[in-house]
Design goal:
- The structure is a single chain.
- The protein is α/β, with parallel strands linked by helices and 386 residues long.
- Helix content is 48%, strand content 15%.
- It has a seven-stranded parallel sheet, sandwiched between helices. A four-stranded mixed sheet has the order 9-8-10-11, covered by helices on one side.
- α6 (127-143) runs parallel beside α11 (217-230) and α16 packs across α17.
- Bound molecules: NADPH dihydro-nicotinamide-adenine-dinucleotide phosphate and magnesium ion.
- The site of magnesium ion has 4 residues, from α7.
Length: 386
C-alpha cells in the first residue's frame, strides 16, 4: 500500500494551507491529523474536505467556540486542545510524517516529541533549528528520522546536493530576495511602518516571516537552519541577494561546479518535494518561463544597513544558546513592532541588546533554551517600555 499518512501542525497558516493545496493533487497522501491555533474557519473546511479524524485547537481562548462548532457539525473524530493537543497531533500513531508549519518557538517542543516518536519531519518551522539545531539534529540521527526541508532555499540546497557527496561540497550559496527595502538606507528604514514592511515583493507569507524578510533576519535564520540541516561551517555559507527569486539556492562542489534549483516563487513545490521525497510527482506549482524571467542578477547583501544578517552569523559562531537568544529576541521584537509598540529599527536594536546581555555560553539543553526564551522575551519587552 502506497498511502502515506501525514499530520500538519499549524494547518491554518500560509504553509499549512499550501500543504492542503498540495494534498488536493496527492491522492496517496492522507491527512490524519491537523492543528490550528485559532482559525476555526480553516478547521471546519479542512474537516469537511479531508475528513481528518484527529484535530487540535491550541488557542484555549477559542475552545468554547470550537466545541460548539464541532458539535454543530456532528464531527465524529477526536478533538484535542491546548499544548497537549498539539503534542497529540505531532505524535499520532498513524502518521508517518509531520509537517511543522507553526510559526515561532511554539513549534520546538512538538517537533521534538514527533522525532522521539520516530516521525519524519517536513520542516517549515525554521525557528526549531535556530533555537535548538544541535539538539534536534542529534535526536533525529539517534531516532533515524529524516528532516525534510520545506523552506524553499533549503529544499533547493537539498535537491542540488544530490549531484555530489557531502565530502565534495565546498560551499552553500544561499539566495535572498533582499526584501522590500533593498537599496534603502537607515534614514529610510527609521520611517518604515508596519504596512510597508508587510508587503513582500515576491512571496505571500505569514506576518512574522514577512517582517523577518524585510530586516534580512529571515536570511540570518536560514543561515543557521542550513548549518544544522547540511552540517556545514558558517564560513561555508554565503548569502547572495537575487531579487528575481528564481534561483532558490545553490551549492558549489570541489570541482567548481555550481548546482542550482530554479522555479517560480511558489511554496507548493518545496512542500510537494518534501512529502514525496525521494520521488517527484506531477507539479502543483506553476511552470517557470525563463524567457519571461529574462535576467537573473546577483548582489552582495548590504550588511551595514541590514545588521540582522551578521547578528545571526555571530550568534551562530558563538554557539551555546546564543542562536536561541537571537531567535527569542527577534520573535518578541517583531511581535512588539506588529503591535505598534516599537519602531522598525528598534527590532534590531533590541536583538543586539539581548545578544549582549545574554552572552552566556551555556549548554543548549531544552530546559536552558526554554528558560532563556522566557528571560529574553521579558528583557526585550522591558526595552520597549524604555
Ligand atoms: P502563518 O502566520 O501564516 O501561520 C502560522 C500557523 O501557526 C497558523 O496555523 C497558526 O494558527 C499557528 N500558530 C500561531 N501561533 C501558534 C501557537 N502559539 N501555537 C500553535 N500554533 C500557532 O505562518 P507561515 O505559514 O508563514 O509560517 C510558518 C512557518 O513556516 C514559520 O516558521 C516560517 O518561518 C516558515 N516558513 C514560511 C514560509 C512561507 O512562505 N510562509 C516559507 C518558508 C518558511 P492560526 O492561524 O489558527 O492562529
Ligand atoms: Mg526561505
Amino acid at each position: 500500500c502506497n498511502v502515506k499518512n501525514i499530520s500538519i501542525i499549524g494547518a491554518s497558516g500560509s504553509i499549512g494551507t499550501q500543504t492542503l493545496e498540495v494534498l488536493r493533487s496527492e491522492k496517496e497522501i492522507k491527512l490524519v491529523g491537523a492543528s490550528v491555533h485559532s482559525n476555526l474557519m480553516v478547521l471546519r473546511s479542512m474537516i469537511e474536505e479531508f475528513c481528518v479524524m484527529n484535530v487540535a485547537v491550541t488557542d484555549l481562548k477559542v475552545r468554547d467556540d470550537a466545541e460548539l462548532m464541532l458539535s454543530t457539525m456532528g464531527y465524529g473524530g477526536t478533538v484535542h486542545y491546548g499544548a497537549e493537543g498539539l503534542e497529540a497531533i505531532a505524535t499520532l500513531d498513524e502518521a508517518q510524517v509531520v509537517v511543522t508549519s507553526i510559526v515561532g518557538m511554539a513549534g520546538l517542543t512538538p517537533t521534538i516529541k514527533a522525532i522521539e516518536k520516530g516521525k519524519d519531519i517536513a520542516l517549515a518551522n525554521k525557528e526549531t533549528l535556530v533555537a535548538a539545531g544541535g539538539l534536534v539534529t542529534d535526536l533525529a540521527r539517534e531516532k533515524g528520522v529524516m528532516i525534510l526541508p520545506v523552506d524553499s532555499e533549503h529544499s533547493a540546497i537539498f535537491q542540488s546536493l544530490r549531484a555530489g557527496n557531502h565530502s565534495e561540497l565546498r560551499k552553500i550559496l544561499l539566495t535572498a530576495s533582499g526584501g522590500p527595502f533593498r537599496g534603502k538606507d537607515r534614514q529610510f528604514l527609521s520611517k518604515v511602518t508596519k504596512e510597508m514592511a508587510l508587503k513582500h515583493p515576491n512571496w505571500a507569507m505569514g506576518a512574522k516571516i514577512t517582517i523577518d524578510s524585510s530586516t534580512l533576519m529571515n536570511k540570518g535564520l536560514e543561515v543557521i537552519e542550513a548549518k544544522w540541516l547540511f552540517d556545514v561551517d558558517y564560513d561555508d555559507i554565503e548569502v547572495y541577494v537575487h531579487p528575481e527569486s528564481i534561483i532558490h539556492s545553490m551549492v558549489e562542489f570541489c570541482d567548481n561546479s555550481i548546482i542550482a534549483q530554479l522555479g517560480t516563487p511558489d511554496m507548493t513545490l518545496p512542500i510537494q518535494y518534501a512529502l514525496n521525497y525521494p520521488d517527484r510527482h506531477e507539479a502543483v506549482a506553476g511552470r517557470l518561463d525563463l524567457f519571461k524571467a529574462g535576467r537573473l542578477t546577483f548582489e552582495k547583501p548590504d550588511r551595514e544597513t541590514f545588521e540582522a544578517l551578521d547578528m545571526a552569523y555571530e550568534a551562530g559562531r558563538a554557539g551555546g544558546i546564543m542562536t536561541a537568544v537571537l531567535n527569542s529576541a527577534n520573535e518578541e521584537a517583531v511581535d512588539l513592532f506588529l503591535k505598534d509598540r516599537i519602531g522598525y529599527l528598534d527590532i534590531t536594536r533590541i536583538i543586539g541588546e539581548c545578544l549582549r546581555r545574554f552572552d552566556q555560553r551555556i549548554t543548549p539543553t531544552l530546559g536552558n533554551i526554554l528558560e532563556a526564551d522566557r528571560e529574553v522575551r521579558a528583557y526585550a519587552r522591558s526595552m520597549a517600555k524604555g
